[in-house]
Amino acid sequence: MADIPPELSKAASGLIGPIIGAAMGVLMRHSQLVQAGQRPFWSLRLLYEVPTVIGMAIIGGGLGAYLSLPELASWAVAGLLACYGPRSIDVLVRAAAAKLGVKAEG
């Protein structure tokens, strides 16, 4: 087997925590939508939450590193971004679509 470069190994291990935090944030948002009756518990929408988890983990981990936060605080930042970040983006996209006269589904 080929040896993994230490930089790649360090980067991958550094993303595990933020991915866990982001996954928890997405699951919190998903459970809120399920409780409100806006989404079934098991749906295909869960599949496209995976890129959200990965993206928010990268952004949250990077923001935590930039702000020199402790590791657990970076996890929390990733979780907050995953829970509230995409929702805010969704609101902005829907507002822009409504302004342009495009019907946004969902």
Descriptive terms for the model:
about 75% helix; single chain; LydA family holin superfamily III; membrane; elongated; LydA_holin; transmembrane; transmembrane helix
Concise synopsis of the structure shown:
By secondary structure, the protein is mostly helical. 73% of the residues lie in helices and 0% in strands.
Distinct helical segment count? 3
What sort of overall outline do the alpha carbons produce when their principal axes are compared?
elongated
How many β-strand runs? 0
Counting structural domains, the number is: 1
Major sheet size, sense and barrel closure: none
> What string gives the helices and strands in order?
HHH
Query: How far do the termini sit from each other?
Result: 46 Å
Mean pLDDT: 84
Helix content: over 70%
Strand content: under 5%
Spans of at least 5 consecutive residues with low confidence: none
What structural category characterises the helix and strand content? mainly alpha
* CA radius of gyration: 16 Å
Any overview of this molecule?
Pfam families: Phage_holin_3_3. This is LydA family holin superfamily III. InterPro entries: LydA_holin (IPR032126). Keywords: Membrane, Transmembrane, Transmembrane helix. With about 110 residues, the chain is mainly α. It has one domain. About 75% of the residues lie in helices and about 0% in strands. The longest helix has 30 residues, at about 5-35.
List the helices and strands and how they pair.
Blueprint: H1 6-35, H2 50-66, H3 71-100
